[in-house]
Amino acid sequence: MENFLLSLCIPTNGVPEWVIPVLNSIYSQGENENLYQIVITDNGDNEAFFQRMKEFTDKHSNLKYLKTNSPGFLNQIDCFKNADGQFIKFINHRFTLNSGALNYYINFVKNNIRNKPIVYFTNGVLNGGKTILRLNTFDEFINQLSYWSSWSAGIGLWKDDLYKLDELNEYNELFPHTEILFMETNSNNYIIDNTNLLTQLPVQAIAKGKYNLFKAFAVEYPSILCNLFRKNHITLQTFLKIKKENFNFIKGQYFEYIVRKKDCSYDLTNADLYLDIYYSKRQVKASMPFICLKRFLRKVLNIFICKS
Fold first, then answer.
1. What percent of the chain has pLDDT over 70?
2. Whole-angstrom Cα distance, residue 25 to residue 48?
3. DSSP code string of 73-110
4. Bridge partners (DSSP) listed for residue 65
5. Structure pTM?
6. N or C end of the chain: which has fewer CB within 10 A?
């Protein structure tokens, strides 16, 4: 069927304790199943998960389940290419839809299907200002998104733009979603929607990621931004602003996983080497006492607020 307004794309490696609650959060909203489609592409090897998916496909004709051999984040591309809806929305397999979110996405498609803006859903992470930002240039769009453009869960694209996925030829294996977001640099119609629509499931940190964390955010992501600047798609001011804000994010990750040695499944090898390509490991390490003090004071403040 190709008359769906919306396709919700859920690439996964077959983790039922995540995907099943996500599916339940969608179907429990009671929306007309002729209006939307769910596409699940699975690059895992979990027979129990396969059987659960069969139960859902037997019950819901709007669910498409496919096995794929695409590794890691490239599973996203397979999922998008198999979507039939007029608008294709990425749904992280660890994020349930809040009550009313499905209706919100459907209405977004209905209200914007003529103009087809480039849109990114930030799910409440942007501080202050309007919930809906309408921007006229790619530079403004990327400037306002900051390093959140590296986050896959906000991605959406129109079916009419699917052909552009083939034009990319090769994708950054860590950030294919970001490259998709950056495909259209000449539009005059961009939207950042900061409505809170999703809730992350409780997850064990150990199961969350297996890629090299500091290579991803200290090398690969800044390189994508740098390439945008070289091609004059963003200004120097925007590049430096996002580079700085991404650095603050990296420092927090360094504190958690290198200093505190918090459990994770990220690959942390060569962290100091990667930090010295676009940033400075010396500056990162020098900031650790300040981050520690800041977090201590935050805890003290929270205790004071709870007691008062």
1. 94
2. 20
3. GGHHHHHHHT--SSEEEE--TTEEEPTTHHHHHHHHHH
4. 40
5. 0.90
6. C
